[in-house]
Amino acid sequence: MKLCFNEATTLENSNLEKDLEICEAHGYDYIEIRTTDKLPEYLETQTLDDLADYFRAHHIKPLALNALEFFNNRDKEGHDAIVQEFQEMMTICDKIGAKYVVAVPLVTTDKILKKDIKANSIAVLEELSDIAKPHGVKIAVEFIGHPECTVNTFRDAYDIVQSVNRDNVGLVFDSFHFHAMGSNIEDLKNADGSKIFLFHIDDTEDFQIGLLTDDDRVWPGHGAIDLDAHIATLKKIGYRDVVSVELFRPEYYKLAPEETIQKAKETTVSVISKHFNR
Questions:
Q1: Is the pTM of this model over 0.90?
Q2: C-alpha to C-alpha distance for 252 and 89, rounded to whole angstroms
Q3: What digits encode the pLDDT tens for the residues 18-54?
Q4: Taking a C-beta distance cutoff of 8 angstroms, is the pair 141, 149 a contact?
């Protein structure tokens, strides 16, 4: 299984240029590029051509743009902005060779009927799928394990993706989000592995289901998640592509970025190596 670095792991103690340099030195195969902050910061002084040149000259490659945020159940102005942002992402993907765009459902305190969440999510993903197809880019929907997210369990996210039924629309399986709202491992066991596009590995402190936040994440293997069950099940249903380590731990942001990136790799490989070769 290939190893990827998600830039959230060094959100406050590094930038894209440093992340690339350190990840390359430590043998990462891929990187997920944050389009909300680190890429815009990079583009203040460099260009997409510079970034594309870097990837051509080095081992590490771009896996995904992370993320298209709050894609569903928007008003017309919000929807139009999402479509425009996604079209701009296609230009970036074309230039640097990213394979996926991570799409995050709406987070809101408004009450929305589940049937309306599903219907709108399907409609928007079908629209985005049509836009992405000529570019050869796939959309990876990431359900968020928090009560205020409109799609917050694996079952609901998988149901939406199955209903869309497009080759370029699938899921992010994130161990934290799966655990955080008590998603059922049986649902994963019954899933089509080809619909899992990305695997985010992380762990968490042992707080109550429904109250966990990103700040509670810890190094893989250092928390309460049954990662062995997740990984063994993913393997059984046919997923064996890339594992991307994604942490948002405030205390980890106080470390030197090289220490964070090295520790993230060591802990990820320690867990993954029980099931997959690197």
A1: yes
A2: 29
A3: 999 999 999 999 999 999 999 999 999 999 999 999 9
A4: no
